[in-house]
Amino acid sequence: MWQQPTSLFTDHYELTMLQASLHSGAAHRPSVFEAFARRLPEGRRYGVLAGTGRILEGLKEFRFGEEQLRFLSDTKVVDATTIKYLENFSFSGNIYGYAEGEIYFPYSPVMIVESTFAEACVLETFVLSALNHDSAIASAASRMIAAAGTRPCIEMGSRRTHEESAVAAARAAIIAGFDSTSNLEGGHRYGLKTVGTAAHSFTLLHDSERAAFQAQVDSMGVGTALLVDTYDVEQGVRTAVEVAGSELGAVRLDSGDLVEQARWVRTLLDDLGNENTRIMVTSDLDEYAIASLQSAPVDSYGVGTSLVTGSGHPTASMVYKLVSRHNDAGEFVDVAKAAKNKVSVGGRKYAVRQLDERGRATEELIGIGEIPETDANDRLLLEQFVVNGEINTDFTAASGVRRAVKRHRDSIKEMPGTSRRLQRGEPVIPTRFINED
Amino acid sequence: MWQQPTSLFTDHYELTMLQASLHSGAAHRPSVFEAFARRLPEGRRYGVLAGTGRILEGLKEFRFGEEQLRFLSDTKVVDATTIKYLENFSFSGNIYGYAEGEIYFPYSPVMIVESTFAEACVLETFVLSALNHDSAIASAASRMIAAAGTRPCIEMGSRRTHEESAVAAARAAIIAGFDSTSNLEGGHRYGLKTVGTAAHSFTLLHDSERAAFQAQVDSMGVGTALLVDTYDVEQGVRTAVEVAGSELGAVRLDSGDLVEQARWVRTLLDDLGNENTRIMVTSDLDEYAIASLQSAPVDSYGVGTSLVTGSGHPTASMVYKLVSRHNDAGEFVDVAKAAKNKVSVGGRKYAVRQLDERGRATEELIGIGEIPETDANDRLLLEQFVVNGEINTDFTAASGVRRAVKRHRDSIKEMPGTSRRLQRGEPVIPTRFINED
């Protein structure tokens, strides 16, 4: 999956902290770091966790090879003692967390890293990059799926975001329920279903729209989707049907008033005898546009920009905080920052999703210490992904994605119906803290 | 730079278009594609082009190796004829464009790709991913630099965006005038200056704030920056000065009301005899927060989330359009889509920045055909990056970044003073089209 070390996807200060703590000796204190979001984006009712599988894949490559060490040494980022420590670096601790695809709420401990301070500290930037990006996309995607109901959504935003973010975005979209993606590398790495037919340039390349449609049908068969809005939409639809006949798979609309257009294009297709030809729409859709198209005769949605930019919230505001560490007596001490407007809760957490007798989520229970007795329906949310440095590969690659798709579908089913509303509101279930101390 | 092929950072439909055009024969028509933005983000007065160097670096690796071809073949993305074509794929055309760091406006032809349809078509997604992401970041960064005046800005948003976007964002920020970045991979790949000291976790790791400061100073010297807001800021400053003495390099404030806090922390530092200790602030800054801090005694700004998410505009809305291609007679024909609300202008463009006698930009002139006579001051904006497939490496890697930094600085100097205003407005100079046809 990764063809290069991931170890320099790291903020400079992680390594200077490592250096200073090696110097003070505190680097080796057993520590617990926790990733969580203090809040959801304004008005959002839930978040969708994604990125975990990518973190586990990247963790395998989180090594400092000759090239990385030479860079750190030449540019004097750290001293010789630290370089020596990094030479042998390999994460040997435990990682727990919410399964990928799981729904989360403010303060849900979505990832817990237990190891020495040194080992957990240097992972911070990479862990947060993956969680913040991928969860932002999955959270937006899940709302689009809610808005689309039973109509399939196709991810096609690669060109609107960094080329590697595009791969991760395709993966996150599929986890949240998208049917497929345009991103080929996503297909290659994660076995995602990829789709696509043609753009306007293909029509413009040929001497006429008819010639372009003919070329496409000749090569891809009549089941393809023809893009009918390069010139005049009505003429485009008529030409498409003339060229492909009654078995034409779909027409795609990419501009104009899609609601109105879908209506008369549907009528026109039906009049021409193409009742089975589907209508796909793809112009700057977000969850609100999708909702407004629900009454229109549309068969599928292609979503680009708003998906890969998290529909107004391109990052998930997850943080990664030291919550507990050994003191000199070798006992764990809970720690938390006290600075204004950035509250953290110290201590190693557990998390339980409380469900009522019908299996409906009622509360996110987060606590420190012993897990209280739970009802039969309640779900413990923390799974273990890494055991003494050993990565559970069930959570990685294509199988990890399939597992996450199922996790998200199952988690959504548990949520109260209000979770599917697009209107702004509070988190759909409340979070309750229990602190035994 | 790239350790793996970039060829699958591509939308599925680019390859199905390739297949259908190989079938129709149009694949080999000489073609001109153009990348441009139809608009700037609302209220923005200029955009900053970035991503070009990364495209050129990726172009070298835009090959279809065994693994890529097997994927395309196994998943039936394209047919055997197309696989055969891709086996030997290597871009052999010409690429022109605005230099990286250059300012652009709506319809500026920021990149022009001349080759066969086949070769230019398959590059679309990768080209747009790099331009859209990197230009969004550079454009936001440039406004932050304007707001910061002579005070240095430090990029530290890696954790808020995908780990590879983070590297590209660091690079784009430096191009737009940032002093340095926290991103180590950015330092490694592009020779960017990296900086960093410590986070709250470092303080929490130790048994007291004093112990943590002592550890940091022991390891990094008194010139380091101490983070003083983990517990009580006033006590933090006093402890920092006690531990490091009068030569303490800086204190960092990361929470609370930064304007008010910077004032009294400055007074406190001065009273303690630390007139030379700088104040760095880092809490959720964007260009507006930076502007509001200009009257406060702050020495540098660390910028994270808002930078890497383009300060509200995470993508630059660049498109890549076929504007001209051969007909059967072997003559170039200008082409453009006619669909509603998505106007394109056909034809191979030139671009000139018109400057008055004092070297101030007055107009962006974009035309088709012969370039009109220009005044001595006017600047032709298109440079050639690729000549018959040969990449000019001056525009890549660390030297490319240095060149782009200079280009941006010089371009900004030419702009009217209003370009530096944060208020919403029209593009700072108008774009004029000349069409000789």
From TrEMBL, chains A, B:
Where does the sequence pass through the membrane?
none
Q: Does the keyword Nuclease apply?
A: no
Q: What is its EC number?
A: 6.3.4.21
What GO molecular functions are on record for this protein? Answer: glycosyltransferase activity; nicotinate phosphoribosyltransferase activity
Provide the Quinolinate phosphoribosyl transferase C-terminal domain boundaries: 137-305
Against Pfam families, the record matches this protein to: NAPRTase_N (PF17767), QRPTase_C (PF01729)
Record domain Nicotinate phosphoribosyltransferase N-terminal: where: 8-132
**Know the name of this protein?**
Nicotinate phosphoribosyltransferase
Species of provenance: Paeniglutamicibacter terrestris
**Taxonomic classification, please?**
Bacteria, Bacillati, Actinomycetota, Actinomycetes, Micrococcales
